[in-house]
Amino acid sequence: MNKKRTPIKKINLGAASPSRRQFLKKSSAAAVALASSPLVFAAGDKVGSASEKMIGIQIGAASFYDEGVDKVLDIVQKRGAVNTIFISTFCYDRGLNGRQMPGHPFPDHGPAESDKNIYHGGNYATPHAKYYGNTAIKGDKMKAPDYGINSDILQKVIPAAKKRGIKVFASVLDSFDYPDDVRKNISDYMEVDLSGNKGQAMCFYKPDVKEFWKAVVTDLSSSYDIDGILFFNERNGPLTNTIGANFDVGFHASRITCFCDDHKRAAEAHHLDFERVKEGFRRLDILVQQTLKGTRPTDGYYVEFERLILNYPEVVAYHQIFDLGKHEILRDVKEAVKAVNKNLQVGFHIEHENSFNPFYRATRDYEDLATRADFLKVVAYNNAGGERYASFIRTIGSTMFRDVPLEELMRFNNHLLNYGKEEAPLDQLAADGLSADYVFRETRRAMEGSKGKCKILTGIDVNIPIKKTSRFASPDDTYKATLAALKAGGDGVILSRKYSEMMLANLDAAGRAIREGLKG
């Protein structure tokens, strides 16, 4: 049976393309963000009943092995009012799995001892070979060894969760933190940087990679009584990474990805001259490195950046091609899961970058994303958000906007993003965090942008690790943020990032907000 596939739009934007003039016009607006409409936090907004809301929490395999399945489920259900768990099933990243991140205080539950010497990551369920026939990347090579080769977190947790009426979703993370032994096995499928070296993640455009992700979610959907999949692929594109338009990536275009043969074919299919693409990124790298040293161009930093983009529109077009590959993976994941069972729910994690980065936000159309998912997990981490937003302002303020004083740059960015006056100034932002109103506005923006085409679940910051000088979430912070998300009228919340870094008092506070909020 042939299914109608959501078409991937073609970019016809190369230097020799008839649409070049139109593209040049678009590329000149590369620095302009999409500002959301003003929203009012109405305390009397109707929230809806508990049966209508998904109240989720992200939990790594380590917590169930460390504390026991029944104990963990008791805590999250009774204290956090949780009715859905998102188990980090395929994951190499310590942000979603393992115990507390090394170097951060342990919570008041679970072992007060780091697992950094035993943590490996991988598939914590059981890979079944029959689902990997269309890819050279075999599932057994990705089996997590942490708790024994025969361990299976879904088999361990699902029966107990179902008895309690708790829904179970398998979280799958497209990683860029593969251990050396895994990286060796998948070396042929890794991205390639501008210098020709292997990158940190698998390339979206490689056929075996595309088939691999379909195999993973098909296996999980077919082999276990789960309620759905939550897929993570947190990737910035090559343009934003090169200019430092992010909060945690360096400024080295020579390491920007991906420039492999499969990406070259994708570029040429969209009428892009691949050599001009690479030349544009090399010139951009030179400009960025000079800017970081304070070597000011005659016409200023931003003008020189804009001039380069106008001369090399292929840079922006190639950035779009990166995103097209990423979104095609999302489409494939949903179609693979629905082919197993149309009633399974598929959701995608929307990176925090989308919240405070106008460059990134311009590439994320909620209405378009909503057509690819049953629900979107929209990150609105308010406490960690202060530190991350401040870092973004400082990084972008050291490259293309270096001529603008940082405080003025932040005020300008606030206007672009429709941030309220209650947010702290730059020098206090990390220590104060972002407000509960920020959580409300981001939830409402996602709801309005998606136009009811999918459900919106707000990711809530519950003790996400931060620097010692930044704001550590108090129970009151967690309460206010959780209540704000519910008041905004979304379809639920997902307590994040992982249970093993949450203080019980904060989990209690989230549960209190949920119970109060759902009373209307």
Describe the structure.
The protein is an alpha/beta fold and 520 residues long. It has one domain (20-518): Glycosidases (TIM Barrel, Alpha-Beta Barrel). 42% of the residues lie in helices and 12% in strands. It has 20 helices and eleven strands. Helix 9 (274-292) packs antiparallel against helix 10. It is globular. The N and C termini lie far apart (46 Å). The relative contact order is 0.15. Mean pLDDT is 89; it is low at 1-10 and 12-48.
What amount of the residues lies in strands?
A: 5-15%
The CATH architecture comes to: Alpha-Beta Barrel
N- to C-terminal distance: 46 Å
The number of helices is: 20
Largest sheet: 8 strands, parallel, barrel
| Oligomeric organization of the protein chains | single chain
CATH class type: Alpha Beta
The radius of gyration over CA amounts to: 22 Å
The counted number of beta strands is 11
Structural domain tally: 1
> Given the C-alpha coordinates, what overall shape results?
globular
CATH topology: TIM Barrel
Q: Please, what is the average pLDDT?
A: 89
The helix content, as a percent range, equals 40-55%
Can you tag this structure with a few keywords?
8-stranded parallel barrel; TIM Barrel; 20 helices; alpha/beta; two-stranded antiparallel ribbon; 520 residues; globular
